[in-house]
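Box 3.1 A note on notation
Throughout this textbook, protein chains are presented in two layers. The first layer is the amino acid sequence; the second is a token string describing backbone geometry. Keep the layers aligned when reading.
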Amino acid sequence: MVEISADAAVVGGGLGGVAAALALLRAGRTVILTEEHDWLGGQLTSQAVPPDEPSWVEQFGVTASYRALREGIRAYYRAHYPLTERARAQREFNPGAGHVSRLCHEPRVAVAVIEAMLAPYRGSGRLRVLQPYRPVGAEVDGDRVTSVRLAHRDHDTEQVVLHASYVLDATETGELLPLTGTEYVTGFESQAETDEPSAPAEAQPMNMQAVSVCFAVDHIDGDHTIDRPASYDFWRAYEPPFWGDKLLSWRCPNPRTLAIMERSFTPNPDDDPQLVEADQRVNPGDANLWTFRRIAARRNFTPGAYASDITLVNWPMIDYLESPVIDVPDADRHLAAARELSLSVLYWLQTEAPRHDGGTGYAGLRLRGDVTGGADGLAQAPYIRESRRVRALTTVTEQDLSVAIRGDKGAVSYHDSVGVGMYRIDLHPSTGGDNYIDVACSPFEIPLGALIPQRMTNLLPACKNIGTTHITNGAYRLHPVEWNIGEAAGALAAFCLDQATTPHAVRADGRLLADYQQRLVRDGVELRWPDVIGY
């Protein structure tokens, strides 16, 4: 069995993992970065989800390295894509002109930029990336992780053992927590534990946000109907009790009001991409599903370059509600069923969906697996909204963030802030039968205590697995916050190595904490918000 050593092992190559690795590498450390899918970048790439970001993202509220990622994506388009001169000149260029984000783009572009950000460290030999590998075991000595064992995704017998002074869990589902015996929580905590007004009376550990398998489509002449999925009849008849109609329909609850609404779907509207206002304070953008998460607006490109827009399907109807995929014995079966649901949605769109012109079915919809990289035409990986969450020194609760509770005071400010974030407390329907929970949130800080396990000394969460609750995870789970979490965790591991100290000591010692926070600020991490109002 191959054994590899480095200063730090970052297990999981999503946004948090990439940011953690970059922070360690900037500090001069050696890093092993692992990822089980073909692309680095997680929810931005292999899961194919355009970035969900705060309304002020172009001015403040993200780290300097995350801003470099965003600007790198725009620069890549300007350097390599046949943009119109008008699009090329737009400072805040939005390739897809989607309503969900000021930067809707094709996943492969983000992959290229991430690889470029990591390339110098690969060349120097200080970074080694292992793909496609997943964690399958760990050795622990008391409160320290001594090694992590990985297996090749496609060949279980091909295994590698990692040794590192610090181990960062940046997996999408907190895979290292059970493997190392680290205390964690899943699902909905009880109100008795958290005092959250939206929490249930009793804990519901298997009640988690739905996972979704996204996919990209365009719309061109011809019949591009896929084979009828084996479970299509099941999904065609499926009707959640709170949905207001069948899952495969244009009707569903409004996330913010829960009133039943009907969405529209108009492929290739002749809209002006530069007039799209991607500001979720004003409009969540989901009324027309074609433009909601559009990732390529054909009018941004020279005539004939794109025969159609490309839109990313991450819509309510692909949320898989039948079971969680964490801590269940048949997770693979449910992940396969979630993929089958997405294919069933596509088949319904192509064959039975009521058309805007009065007809039925959009046979011209073409599955763009070349855009998402999945072997079956879908995204490579499921979109994971909720992870295992470490039992940390600090747990962020609803009453720390909610505008309804905090009013004009803003979110709780932490003395040990390691970054900032902003998104509504946005929970999709859950495996426990809950409807949306989508409420206004104050711009918030990320407390260092949420990144430090109560007991383990050299294991750090670096993704969606920090000390949040089921409810507050809904605000902390999005792209720039995950990146900031990873960056802070990587910088913390490097700082502890430099100072021969521990994460617990850094948080407890005012001088060490100030020095660590100063390092974050030097690297472009914002620790406080200016005076802005939540939404």
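Residues 426 and 474 are 5 Å apart (CA to CA). The longest helix spans residues 331-351.
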